[in-house]
Specification:
There is one protein chain. 32% of the residues lie in helices and 16% in strands. The protein is α+β, with helices and mostly antiparallel strands. The chain has a 4-stranded mixed β-sheet with strand order 2-1-3-4, with no helix packed on it.
């Protein structure tokens, strides 16, 4: 990854073909400047029960995933990874959060756009409007070019 890349960081389950396919189809045309980082999570319906090695092999064989797949993480609760604690604290509770005032994520597939400077820009709930993501990254590119 280059220092001028944006990062789309998501958590989810590897067996959800429609999700991974959507991510690849909709992000594919702007992956030149967007690095996808995936963090499997087993906290929602115990849907990601395989080992880290099994998950990585599965997505490689089944979907041809080439973006980085990290080890499973907790995104809620006392064992929440420091990364997701930081990301959740960067945004007010809203769509994708479990309850009013609660910082817990309500389901898999939340996404976080990270800027060139490493700072979180935006949180996207499970249902992502990829046109909005593309517009957001375009707007960030324009902003950074004008500096």
């Amino acid at each position: 990854m280059q220092t001028n890349d944006y990062v789309l960081l998501w958590h989810g389950m590897s067996s959800c073909q429609s999700y991974i396919t959507l991510c690849l189809q909709n992000c594919g045309h702007f992956l030149n400047w967007l690095q996808v980082l995936a963090f499997p999570c087993n906290q929602f319906g115990q849907q990601e029960s395989g080992s880290d090695a099994d998950i990585k092999q599965f997505v490689k064989d089944r979907y041809g995933i080439t973006f980085p797949m990290f080890s499973k993480v907790d995104v809620n609760g006392p064992q929440t990874s420091q990364l997701f604690t930081y990301l959740k604290q960067s945004f007010p509770p809203w769509l994708g959060m479990a309850a009013s005032g609660d910082k817990d994520l309500s389901w898999n597939f939340n996404k976080f756009l990270i800027g060139r400077n490493g700072m979180p820009i935006k949180h996207y709930p499970s249902e992502l409007d990829y046109a909005q993501l593309e517009q957001d990254v375009y707007n960030e590119l324009v902003k950074t070019q004008n500096k």
